[in-house]
Design goal:
Layout: H1 17-31, E1 39-41, E2 48-50, E3 58-66, H2 70-77, H3 83-95, E4 101-111, H4 116-133, E5 136-144, E6 154-165, E7 180-185, H5 194-201, H6 221-226, H7 233-236, E8 245-248, H8 253-257, E9 266-271, H9 279-288, H10 292-298, E10 303-309, H11 311-320, E11 325-332, E12 339-342
Parallel strand pairs: 4-5, 9-12
Antiparallel strand pairs: 1-2, 2-3, 3-6, 4-6, 7-10, 7-11, 8-10, 9-11
Helix pairs in contact: 3-4
């Protein structure tokens, strides 16, 4: 019997999550000397928190990120109006774990040549997402750098600032063993894991796979991959005062992101049988023969946001979030891997 070929990994596609984690530890060390008394939360969380005025009533919360190589899918599809929504919503979701609502957003577009049509398409998505969130698109930078970008290459980066009342700041140290974890569904891959997708389907060499119908879905693979990163602002804003924390499940999956919402010494048991993994993720796994555990390390797997809530508030929060479900529980876990997958058949 012929041996089964080894499955694709994120590292094979050029992204080393372990090296990235080590690098972030070093960055945190280097940044430490710059953090003054006004810094409430520095590098390591989803968003940085600063007190601009000790006598004031609100903190500022900020974050930055990029769309990543989802841009390659947009280029192959010839569609750039959704990419702006991706980065705005991603950044909104990264300040939500502090309990913050967005105040203003800035963008950076770097490209090889000035393309008025392309830039207008991108900014239309930025503007629409900001308008939906009640967030000002305050400005940005469009840089034409032919020595850096080539052909149709471009990059899109976002910077966001939001506010939260000081008494409403969500703090990881408020979580306790026994708290419940509620899941909210993602809209797709959001903005993570596209290097692995491109590698599996050979999209850079031949984008024709993007026109194939996605099994069990009905859309083409390209349409599913371009589905914008969902914003959780509208659904979570009414319950922020009832919850203890949020884990925006992006790059690194539950293993990286859920612990960021928890106090030290705590971990999470995630029941992967509590939700059905969407067809897109199953198709990626099967097409690339990706190890099941690698899938949960790279992708959200249909679980886009994890809500930490005390058992006494769980019923009220679940009533306000009808699409949510109990996906796990906070446990004492002072050492080792902080997240364990229950009912995982890897």
């Amino acid at each position: 019997m012929p041996q089964k070929s080894p499955g694709k990994t994120y590292r094979d596609a050029g992204v080393d999550l372990d090296a990235a984690a080590a690098m972030k530890v070093r960055i945190k060390e280097l940044a430490g000397s710059t953090l003054g008394a006004g810094v409430i939360a520095g590098p390591g969380g989803f968003g940085g928190v600063i007190d601009p005025d000790p006598k004031g009533s609100h903190y500022l919360v900020s974050s930055t990120d990029s769309v990543g190589t989802k841009l390659r899918i947009a280029q192959a599809m010839g569609r750039h109006d959704t990419i702006g929504r991706d980065i705005v919503n991603h950044c909104i979701n990264d300040i939500l774990p502090a309990g913050a609502a967005p105040l203003f957003f800035l963008d950076y577009i770097g490209l090889s040549r000035f393309d008025q049509v392309l830039i207008a398409e991108i900014v239309s998505g930025l503007s629409a997402a900001c308008a939906d969130a009640g967030c000002a698109l305050l400005g940005g930078e469009t840089a034409t750098l032919p020595g850096i970008y080539h052909g149709g290459d471009y990059d899109l980066v976002g910077f966001i600032v939001g506010t939260v009342a000081k008494e409403r700041l969500l703090r990881p140290e408020n979580t306790r063993a026994g708290d419940l974890l509620l899941g909210l569904p993602s809209s797709g891959l959001h903005t993570n894991g596209y290097s692995l997708v491109r590698s599996i389907f050979g999209i850079d060499e031949d984008p024709s796979a993007l026109r194939d119908t996605l099994p069990g879905d009905g859309r083409t693979l390209g349409e599913a991959l371009l589905e914008p990163h969902r914003s959780y602002l509208d659904v979570l804003k009414p319950v922020l005062h009832l919850i203890k924390g949020l884990g925006h499940n992006t790059g690194g999956g539950v293993f990286k992101n859920v612990p960021r919402a928890l106090a030290g010494g705590l971990g999470a048991d995630i029941d992967v049988a509590s939700w059905e993994v969407p067809p897109l993720f199953r198709h990626i796994q099967e097409s690339g023969n990706v190890d099941p555990l690698e899938m949960y390390r790279v992708y959200n797997m249909g679980l886009g946001m994890v809500v930490v809530v005390g058992e006494d508030q769980a019923d009220d929060v679940r009533s306000a979030l009808p699409e949510s479900w109990v996906c796990g529980r906070v446990v004492e876990r002072p050492s080792g891997e902080r997240v364990k997958l229950l009912n995982f058949n890897g």
